[in-house]
Automatic annotation (TrEMBL):
Pfam (any one): Band_7
Transmembrane stretches, start-end: 6-24
Gene3D superfamilies documented for this protein: Band 7 domain (3.30.479.30)
The protein's name: SPFH domain-containing protein
Organism this protein belongs to: Paenibacillus woosongensis
InterPro entries in the cross-refs: Band7/mec-2_domain, Band_7, Band_7/SPFH_dom_sf, Stomatin_HflK_fam
Family, per entry: Belongs to the band 7/mec-2 family.
Keywords: Membrane, Transmembrane, Transmembrane helix
Gene Ontology CC: plasma membrane; side of membrane
SUPFAM superfamilies reported in the protein's UniProt record: Band 7/SPFH domain
Length: 311
């Protein structure tokens, strides 16, 4: 009997403590009602409540949450059905409003997203829809912000994950894309061929220019070499003439210094003629001026004069 009383007391104490002491983790908050009316918020850490009188209505996670919106089929302005998947990122910033402003704010966010999406897509054509994900996300976020502000919920981001047109439209788009890519490939190939021809022509032009410049340079150098050779040859001839003249001048100077004047030379010449006249030839021709010169040498001159007279 005593053990039963002890167990009851322990259970009562445990229940009392559990109703009195509340430990709230970080980034969570509890909404406390006292006698059915909002009283206060439980903040992270240790909190003390009055059992039975105070009651924790709900706990909210203050971290950024995400909610997937089920794929929605909407109709574009040009009457094409597309299926859109969307995901919403939100955060509870007002726990009291999130508790009493709406029964289920996640459900409300999804419904507003669906309605807003249909309204936006209904004003856009298919091509605009396929290329306007950013605009769709922005418009949905603006519409959600206006509605969820009084719920204590802030929409952080809206992402349009996928937009799926009908299969026949997808096939047509695939064919159009392939045709566009083939066209682009043909254009690129033609552009490459054009560039190749231009580069080849430019290379051939540069090659001819370089060859012409090389030939010009070779001819210039050849002419310059020939001119220098002629100059050197003329210079050599001039120096040779100067050397001969100098040698002749030196020889004459040496003959003068040795006393070999014109009369001696004439005498030596006639000595040589005398030897010639002893040969088979019976006639010897002597210039008259030479005889006059020899006249100044006396008997020798007379001899040749007589011989001249005999002739």
């Amino acid at each position: 009997m005593e053990w039963a009383i002890i167990v009851v007391i322990v259970v009562v104490v445990f229940v009392f403590i559990s109703l009195t002491v509340k430990i709230v983790p970080q980034q969570r908050v509890g909404v406390v009602e006292r006698l059915g009316k909002f009283h206060r918020l439980l903040t992270p850490g240790l909190n003390i409540l009055i059992p039975v009188i105070d009651h924790v209505r709900v706990y909210h996670d203050l971290r950024i949450q995400q909610a997937n919106v089920p794929p929605q089929t909407v109709i574009t302005k040009d009457n094409v059905q597309v299926q859109i998947d969307t995901i919403i990122f939100y955060q509870v910033v007002g726990p009291e409003q999130a508790t009493y402003g709406i029964s289920d704010y996640v459900y409300g966010v999804r419904n507003i997203t669906t309605a807003t999406m249909r309204q936006i897509i209904g004003k856009m054509e298919l091509d605009e829809t396929l290329s306007g994900r950013e605009k769709i996300s922005s418009d949905i976020r603006i519409a959600l912000d206006e509605a969820t502000e009084k719920w204590g919920v802030r929409i952080e981001r809206v992402e349009v994950i996928d937009i799926k047109p009908p299969l026949d439209i997808q096939d047509a788009m695939d064919k159009q894309m392939k045709a566009e890519r083939n066209k682009r490939a043909i254009v690129l190939e033609a552009e490459a061929a054009k560039q190749d021809m231009i580069l080849r022509a430019e290379g051939d032009k540069q090659s001819k220019i370089l060859k012409a410049e090389g030939d010009k340079e070779a001819r210039i150098r050849e002419a310059e070499g020939l001119r220098q050779a002629q100059e050197l040859e003329a210079l050599g001839e001039a120096k040779a003439i100067e050397a001969v003249a100098a040698a002749e001048k030196s020889r004459i100077q040496m003959l003068r210094e040795a006393g070999l004047d014109e009369q001696v030379l004439a005498y030596r010449s006639f000595e040589a003629l005398t030897e010639v006249s002893k040969g088979p030839a019976n006639k010897v021709f002597i210039p008259s001026n030479a005889i006059e010169t020899l006249g100044s040498i006396g008997a020798i001159g007379e001899m040749f004069k007589n011989k001249e007279g005999k002739k």
